[in-house]
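Exercise 7.
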Amino acid sequence: MSKMRTALVLTLAMITGTALLAPAAQAQATMADVEVKAQQLSDKVYMVTGAGGNIGLFVGDDGVVMVDAQYAAISDKILAALRDITQQPLKLLVNTHHHRDHVDGNANFVAAGAVVVAHEKVVPRVMNDENFDPVGAPTITFSDKLSLRVAGDMLQLQHFPTAHTDNDAVVWFADENVIHAGDLFFKDRFPFIDLNSGGTVQGYIDAIEHTMAMLADDTQIIPGHGSLANKADWQRLVSMIVMTREEVRLMMLDGLTVEQMVEQGLAEQWQDWSWGFINEERWIRTLYNDMTS
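Solution. The predicted structure, written as C-alpha cells, is:
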C-alpha cells in the first residue's frame, strides 16, 4: 500500500489497473427501481445521483476520476451513466469517507479498472466491516492533503479529522470551480454526525468554515446528500447547526433531560429539516451526546 503523508502530485498516466438496511431481497428490489442520473456542471465535471451519497465525475482527456461509489447493487447503472458521458477509462475512485453508501460499490469499480484513493483511516474502517468486499479497499492513501494532476487539471483532497467522521475528505476541482463536499454537506436537512466514528459537531462546523473560505460565491458544490448547492446553501447549514446547538445548550441549563428536550422539540423554523435518516429527535440526541461526551 502506498501512503502519501504529505501533499504530492500524481498523473493519471502513473495509475495502472484494469446500514441499517432492509432484508436482502427487499433491498435488491428497492435498488432495482433506482434511477441513476447525471448532471453536467462544467466541461469536465458531472454530478451523479442514485442511491446513497452523490457521486462526482471528472472526465479528463486520458481517463475518469470518480468520487464515491454508492451501493454495489447499482454499479452497473452507474457505469452505464458514465459510458453515456464518455468512453474514457475509469482510472481513479476517491472515497470521501468510509460509510457504506459511499464505498459499497468500490469492488465493482476496481474490476472496471479503478484504483481507490482515500484517507488512511478509511482502510481499517472498511476492513472491519464484514459486508465490505476487501477487493475495494483503498490502495493509495494520504494523511492530510493529496493533489492529483489529471489531464492538466489539479484535483485537491483535504482531510478533516473530527467532522462527519474521523476520515472525511473533500475533493476540490479547482480549475472547474466545483467541490465535492462528501457528507460535510447535507443540503437543507439535519446532518448525520457519526460520533461513534470520530465525528464531532464543532469539528463539523470547523471543517465547513475552513472549506468555504476558499470558495467563490459561484462555486458549485456537490453535497453528500441533496441537490446541487452553492456557498449560501452551505452557510445555511452551518447557521442551523449553531442555532440548534444553542437551543439544546439552553435546555440543558434549564435542567431538562434529553427525553424532555425531545418532547419539547426545537424551534418551529427547523421543522422542515427532518428527513428519513435524521429526524428532529435524532438531531437533538446528537447535539446532546456531543456536548455531554
